[in-house]
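Sequence, structure tokens reproduced for reference:
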Amino acid sequence: MDRLFKDQPILVTERLILRRLDIQDAEDYHVLSSDPEVCTYLKKGPHISMEETLQFLESASAKISSRTAYNWGIVNKASARIVGRVLLFGFDDENDSCEIGYVLSKEHWKKGIMTEAARTVLNFAFHKLGANRVIARCNEENRGSEKVMQKLGMQLEGVLREQLKWKDHYIHQKQYAIIKRDFEPECNDFEGGVPVAELFPNEIMNLPEADIPLQGLKAYLSQGDEHQVLFMQFDEAAEIPEHSHESQWCVVLEGEILITMNGETSLYRKGDRYYVPKGVVHSAKIAAGYADISFFHEKERYKSKQTGS
């Protein structure tokens, strides 16, 4: 895991923003950390006072500096409030493995939010950190947490008998795990995507169409003196073989795209951005329904259908 702790990026999904937990999140985080129902299976909960929550957040922030754990606060885009936490810890750099954990406020249970957040963190672990294996553990009675692991495609490896000391007794824990090659089919299963409706305004759709020989692609071309900007929408899935060109910057508007570059494969979804440097060989697998805005630092990357130039 050669990129371990080089940074802690902001991760964005359709409904969520995952960012580093901060001391300023204390009020939001205390709502869930002080809830006895949320903390039923947490060894160090619930928090009795705001001071306890502040101490916890200081500790969580210090763990990124001490290179022991990533802690993301789960922000609900709709409310802009912290509604949970997801973390990576227990790093075994020699064997490229780590552990994932999570907690979510109860008003957001059974809405797929925890699975959505954890899947994005798994993608980060596999495709950015270089992990090959990620485990997760839960108390034997914690069916909610176990269901999240199952939805992520993790496999039950066994029961750790009396693995955790809980107050005055010992409890069993279930251990699940997923390896990179098992995770990728779920992320890369792009067949049967739902085409999006036309999402660009008339001002964009009145631009010349770029002449790109891909079935189901509509690409509107804005020509600059030294660059091109393309507004692209894919009604059908597509695979782009290895190629290179001048630099490209892109923001994803809808759907999903897998980019393989420098031997590393990354998944990008709505709201994500990616950059391809000049001359770097890369390939792509694009979902039906994908749309983006791409800036090419190259004035003749594509020709216009109308003019052929």
User: Anything to note?
Assistant: The longest strand covers residues 81-92.
